[in-house]
Specification:
Number of domains: 2
Oligomer: single chain
Strand content: 5-15%
Helix content: 55-70%
Structural class: mainly alpha
CATH topology of the largest domain: 434 Repressor (Amino-terminal Domain)
Distance between the termini: 28 Å
Number of strands: 2
Low-confidence stretches: 140-144
Order of helices and strands: HHHHHHHHEE
Largest sheet: 2 strands, antiparallel
Length: 144
């Protein structure tokens, strides 16, 4: 299990406790069972990718950070590799190579271009709140 995913539960549980929220209440917000939250908080299992955007919304920030912006975008928006490859209209194996930075045929310019596209998509998932002068994360609802 990735340490990044394990570390996700510290702020999750802390936020729940800070606001005196029961697992059942948070479970309804995320559309899961209270037992699932218990399992996550005790590191018994990790969430499906599709739940990550709801978890980020609950936390009001993203504790998930990966060096590769493609992986960041995909995980923070709850997309599988197959779903993101359909959006980009590329083979899932190509996306896997991009995420692992192993593509030999991919020039440095193409890698930079892909990174820029992901960064622009990621930025577009934030909305500026004029009243509070803050950025609010809104996971994109792009689905193939």
């Amino acid at each position: 299990m990735s340490n990044r995913i394990k570390d996700l539960w510290r702020p999750f549980k802390q936020r729940r406790l800070d606001f005196n929220l029961y697992r059942s209440f948070v479970a309804k917000m995320i559309n899961i069972t209270p037992e699932t939250i218990t399992n996550w908080e005790l590191n018994r299992n990790i969430p499906n990718t599709s739940y990550i955007p709801r978890i980020i919304s609950f936390l009001e920030y993203s504790p998930i950070f990966h060096q590769n912006p493609v992986v960041n975008y995909r995980v923070q928006n709850g997309l599988t590799q197959k779903e993101l490859s359909k959006i980009f209209k590329i083979a899932p194996s190509t996306l896997l190579k991009i995420e692992k930075r192993r593509s030999k045929r991919m020039s440095e310019e193409v890698k930079i271009g892909v990174d820029l596209i992901i960064i622009l998509l990621f930025i577009s998932s934030y909305q500026y709140n004029k009243q509070y002068k803050t950025l609010v994360f809104h996971p994109l609802s792009i689905r193939p």
